[in-house]
Amino acid sequence: MSSPLLYPSLTSDAPYISSGDGAWLYDEQGKSYIDGSSGVMISNIGHGNEDIAQIASEQIKKVAFAYRSHFRNRHAEDLASKLVELSQDKSHVFFLNSGSEANDAAVRVAIQYWQELGYENKKFVLGRNVSNHGNTIATLSVAQNKRREEIEPLWLSVTEHKLPACYCYRCPLGKSPDSCQLECAQALEKQILELGAENVAAFVAEPITAAAGGVLIPHDGYFAQIRRICDEHNILLIVDEVVTGLGRTGTWFGMHHFNVSSDISVLGKGLNAGYTPLSAVMINQRIYDVIAAGSHNLSIGHTHSGNPLSTAIASGVVDYLVDSNMPQVVKEKGVYLRDKLDTIAAKYPYVGDVRAIGLLSAIEFVQDKQTREMFPSHVQLSKRISAAALKHGLVLYPCRGLQPGERGDAMLIAPPLNSTYEELEALFQRLDLALQEVFSELG
Ligand code: PLP
User: Fold this and answer.
1) Which fold has domain 53-324?
2) Domain 17-48+325-442 in CATH: superfamily?
3) Which of these, 106, 122, 141, 407, has the minimum number of CB atoms within 10 Å of its CB?
4) SS3 191
């Protein structure tokens, strides 16, 4: 019987999931699946965590909700302290419910910061091509992806400016990573000079572009250049750590790979590892001091922001990550993952590139390894691979829009951070079966 529930393509004939355990999911027919992309890089500590279940149940019995204007929240304060410590560069935190909301709030805080200092015209917030920061109007405006393109004709001109992606395999500026002068970073300076620094509030980027571009890892010196440019032109740096935050890449924060501080960091997904919705916008002392000395008021937030249940759960998730020394675990498992990916790349002629950092990785498929030519869109390669994987009991997230017009095929491999080696082995066995099946159809 068809359901009145709306799915992305309106209706769905996918199986119903009834339970999960570690990196495994089970449907109502009892078929098992490896959660190879942690859903959408969210189920970072896997399914069925007993400690989290207990924290949630105890919290629900204690109190359902208490509003932040009326009462303080001990779980939220504890969680904020833990996140500040792990960040190494932020001083204060505000909680929201989704990555989109938190990025939206980050943009608003950046504009507020400059307004409090009397810079009324600083309103441009620059982003990059091939990026995703969420599905609200503000986050679509700073990103560049298909969802944005769908409503772009209605768009305000303040949102049009986009910088090149750090896509070294297909450098949008035609450079080579061995000899380039980080022209992708210099493009920020050019753009600021064109718009006038007095009109630019912030630059937003993921430390490592996750799903939008199929794991794009910037050149080592990229963020140091970006920071220098932001400082020289009085621009805030906002980093979207919705995917890279809290251990996914083998460091607590993605920016720790580059030893560069941002002014605002955004967390989501892995913060509560999928158990309930929660996200966070984290600011540094510089921003806090200006707002504290100025309006002393934050006009961000939603009814459920920082609710007792989600913050209690996230506090438990962060404790679990800290107690397990998760970044180190991820680093070690990342070596194993890389090795498996390289084996796949060597085995199949259609694997053009593998990009991996910690347990965040993508395989990019090409028609021709030499020319790096993409498959035509009508082949629907990533869609077919993810369907074949699902048949073989592996859930994988296809990356969309490596190039404008939804061109390019890549699959994201990002299992739960606490996956066992047996689970990782099962992932790659099932991936191999799926690739064999689809590639044999290609001839
Ligand atoms: N930022 C990044 C890097 C993301 O990958 C996503 C979602 O995929 C978001 C922000 C938006 O998060 P949410 O879907 O929780 O609003």
Assistant:
1) Aspartate Aminotransferase; domain 2 (3.40.640)
2) Aspartate Aminotransferase, domain 1 (3.90.1150.10)
3) 407
4) helix
What are the structural domain ranges in the chain?
17-48+325-442, 53-324
Pocket-forming residues, ligand 1, beta carbon under 6 Å: 40, 98-100, 103, 132-134, 206, 210-211, 240, 242-243, 268
Ligand 1 atom at minimum distance from 101 CA: 16
**Residue 323 token pair:** 């107690």
Q: Residue 1: what pLDDT?
A: 64
Specify whether the CB–CB gap between 56 and 313 falls below 8 A: yes
Residue 117 alpha carbon to ligand 1 centre in Å = 30
The answer to whether the beta carbons of residues 416 and 46 sit under 8 Å apart is: yes
343 CA to centre of ligand 1 in angstroms: 30
Question: What is the 133 CA–ligand 1 centroid distance (Å)?
Answer: 5
What are φ and ψ of residue 133, in 5° steps?
A: -125, 10
Atom of ligand 1 nearest to the CA of 134: 11
Pocket test for ligand 1, best of 97, 215, 243 (most atoms within 8 A of CB): 243
pLDDT tens for residues 184-227? 999 999 999 999 999 999 999 999 999 988 999 999 999 999 99
Helix runs in 35-136, H state only: 38-41, 50-62, 74-87, 99-116
Model ipTM value = 0.99
Which positions ≥6 away from 378 have C-beta within 8 Å? none
CB 209 within 8 A of CB 166: yes
Give SS3 for 83: helix
User: Of 395, 424, 226, which Cα lies nearest the Cα of 334?
Assistant: 424
Residue pair 32/394 in contact by the 8 Å Cβ criterion? no
What spacing in Å lies between the alpha carbon of 234 and ligand 1's midpoint? 27
